[in-house]
Amino acid sequence: MENYNSLGKVIWFTGLSGAGKTTLSNNLKLKLEKDGIPVIQLDGDLLRESVHRDLGFSQNDRKENVRRTAEMAKMLAEQNYCVIVSLITPIEAFRQMIKNDIVNSVDCHIVYVKASFQTCQLRDVKGLYEKEKAGLIKNFTGTKSPFEEPLKPDLVLSTEESTIDQCTQQLMNQFFVAC
Ligand SMILES: Nc1ncnc2c1ncn2[C@@H]1O[C@H](COP(=O)(O)OS(=O)(=O)O)[C@@H](OP(=O)(O)O)[C@H]1O
Ligand SMILES: Nc1ncnc2c1ncn2[C@@H]1O[C@H](COP(=O)(O)OP(=O)(O)O)[C@@H](O)[C@H]1O
């Protein structure tokens, strides 16, 4: 096991649907697990299918989704897991709530997974942008529901300019320095 400063840490990915949050979370998890680090992933899509099934996409529900996830992340990080969260987290006040009000007992880093709306629309990984065009989705992030650009993220990863491996390396360099 590499001796990283990795225990009790939350890496929180914010970004539009299709920006690359899940892909980078999966890649980072593989890399850390190879080095023997205990990792837990909390992914918006999966949480919404299970414990957050009662929540929709109104601003209040999104805030509650973020709040509950942050409480879980804190609990797990306090037990020395490295917790990787992928949630759109569209509002700056939500991001401040995570860092200042909830996950304040362990290292918590907000990472902006950056890709333009146009790029995400072209990627359209899950066909949601197509559905949105057809008027089939309520409160879609980036059109009917706002996505505020993060003001003070701890790291910005441009998934238009860097490859998946380059982004993962940037995460490792910034947050997992071997000691
Ligand atoms: N209206 C609307 N807007 C945005 N996204 C939608 C919507 N409806 C369903 N989905 C799917 O839900 C995933 C986003 O959920 P999150 O929990 O990450 O959102 S939030 O942080 O509460 O804003 C998101 O996952 P990602 O594509 O991985 O971001 C979508 O698959
Ligand atoms: N540098 C990169 N980082 C992450 N994803 C990338 C990158 N370059 C291209 N992609 C592609 O963009 C898409 C991102 O989808 P996904 O990870 O599901 O986004 P999100 O979880 O933010 O909705 C994937 O098809 C992925 O292969």
UniProtKB/TrEMBL annotation:
NCBIfam families: apsK (TIGR00455), PRK03846.1 (NF003013). Catalyzes the synthesis of activated sulfate. PANTHER family: SULFATE ADENYLYLTRANSFERASE. Its EC number is 2.7.1.25. It catalyses: adenosine 5'-phosphosulfate + ATP = 3'-phosphoadenylyl sulfate + ADP + H(+). GO terms for cellular component: cytoplasm. SUPFAM superfamilies: P-loop containing nucleoside triphosphate hydrolases (SSF52540). It is an enzyme of class 2 (transferase). Gene3D superfamilies: P-loop containing nucleotide triphosphate hydrolases. One of its GO terms (biological process) is sulfate assimilation via adenylyl sulfate reduction. It holds the Pfam family APS_kinase. Keywords: ATP-binding, Kinase, Nucleotide-binding, Transferase. GO terms for molecular function: adenylylsulfate kinase activity; ATP binding; sulfate adenylyltransferase (ATP) activity. The keyword Nucleotide-binding applies. Residues 8-157 form the APS kinase domain. It comes from Rhizosphaericola mali. Belongs to the APS kinase family. Pathway: Sulfur metabolism; hydrogen sulfide biosynthesis; sulfite from sulfate: step 2/3. This is Adenylyl-sulfate kinase.
